[in-house]
Amino acid sequence: MFGEYGYEEEGPLPKTYDLALLRRLSGFVRPYLLLVILALVAGIAITAVSLVVPFVTKLALDRHIVAEWYRLDTKSPTAQRAVEDLQGRFEREAAGQGLFVSATELVRLDPRLVKDLRDLGALSSAAFYRLEPNKTALARQHGLKIIVDEAASAFVGHNELAALDPQARKALREADIRGTAAMGLLLFALAVAAFAFGYWEYIWLERAGQGIMADIRVELFTRVQSQGLAFFDRNPVGRLSTRVTNDVENLNELFKSVMVTLFKDILLLLGIIVLLAVLNWRLALLCFALIPVVFVLAMLFSRLARSVFRKLRETVSAINSFCQERFAAVRTVKLLNARAAQEEEFAEINQQNYDAGMSQIKVFGIFMPLMEWLASLGVALLLWRGGILVIEDRVTLGTLVAFISYLRMFFRPLRDISEKFNIMQAALASTERIVEYLDTDQRLQEPAAPKKPAPGPPAVAFENVDFAYDPAKPVLEDVSFEIPAGEMVALVGRTGEGKTTCAHLLNRFYDPARGAVRVGGVSMRDADPAWRTSRIALVSQDVFLFSATLTENVALGRKALRPDALEHALKLCGAWGFVAGLEKGPETVLSERGANLSGGERQLLSFARALYSDPDILILDEATSSVDPQTERAIQDAVSAMTSKRTTLVVAHRISTIEKARTIIVLNKGRIAEIGSHSELMEKQGLYYKLRRVWKAASVEQATGQNPA
Q: Is the pLDDT of residue 702 over 60?
């Protein structure tokens, strides 16, 4: 479907994708499956590193930076219940009935039990610090009150330790300094590991992605190029180019930027949820309360962003299409002085693109700050509630810091998933369109047992041929005629009577709806494709030259049947004169569509291209319409010399071409109206006679530059 400016509209984005679509793509992924698995493993490793970093920070805080212990008097039954709950995770005094519990173990107890212990005075309100056994003597030298446990470690109050000078504290807390340094080195090692995994994930993923896209492009190009001409009649070139380029790139974006990232983001979210629940389920519930709000906002954003993103893509497509068409027709625009009108029209399309871009910016401008605000709100709630729990010794400081880190990390994949939702939608739509073309098969059925006509110029026969591009509008009806071997037959008639269609059927660009086209007694449906493409040559009025050397344009990758095939073909059609005069001769590089040649020169190269393979059947479809009379006479002389060894079908308006044909067939409304030689048809004074008078008058007018009226 095409919009107002001729660009292809995207149509509604698909909402569901069946397994057949995924299975169709799995064939392209399978050769690169190992790379994909390696990339996923690296992604999992990166996610694991990201999850470990806040936990290591927590350990550094709780075990070394803020390493608090509390003394528990075990005389009361309540204290005995606490001892049972601790299950040996404490240190006993060397003398007395007390024991020391670390803050990380204390927060695991029932908060009501901890409150009862504090109310009874069984649990100290002051925090202690644990010294290594070899620091006991040094602590006594500084006059600190210490309590020794069964492992000969010493416990000293934090207040007393804080009263010492920095050097003394540093000497006593040497173990914690080493522990903090070890944690720092661990974080550095994790960062290096994340870098290494990230590097290899990128390399493996890109290698797999580029390989998959290259294979899909080759397969798609091969599939499209193998279709019959009916396929190209229904599919504009711009649409096909979009499938091979933009849609494949969208699929690549889906593969490398969405699927793997989405997997990592989901894994990260699940990991954060599990870790938060393990660290402290009460604080975790506070964080989880924000999830429904974030989910609703993300869905609302995705719906709005999908609409504006689709509109933006449509306007970009409109600009591309408009510019491509206008730049290609720049001569017409300048000739008609239509610059102002074109600039106004472009300004209108550009304004639509600007409006769509601003709509997208507004949606992102609201959603992204809102997500940041929710993240800040979550941190504020954590500081409020978590701070109270830290003060009440129900949560450690390290746990609170880890929660804040995990909460900030939690919003990052949510933003990524929301941003990539539209990319995923567009990419999946492109994937569906690519698979549709990959599964399209409108090729002409090739024969199971190909046949070749006998060597030499074969006879051609049309037997009761019916054909229509549109079933409701028949082009040919019950057309039958013969071209004897080595003879020339001309097809004439007004525009749209089916002359070129006959040439296309002989080339087997299409198959007739009824009847048969036979060459040397062999139906074109049963003819060997290799024989057909090498022994039948078509020269049409519409000449397409590639941006390549002249030699490459004539040969088109075909193997020459004789060493001097190029020179022979150029001389035979009268093109050698101007080719030899070029700066680099046959190796001259032609510009796009042969713009550095005249129309007549391009037509001569088209003729040489057909003669290069020395065909048995030559089809001339208005082949001399773009050459001057002198060049045309040279071509006609060459054609006349070749008729003894080539079967020739001529579709022409020029009188000189028609008169030399052995037989002239006049088509009218898709049927044969008259058939005979030039003299026979002129004597009959029928449709051919009338057409010839019109053509002759037009030729005189063109030659004299006068209006017969």
A: no
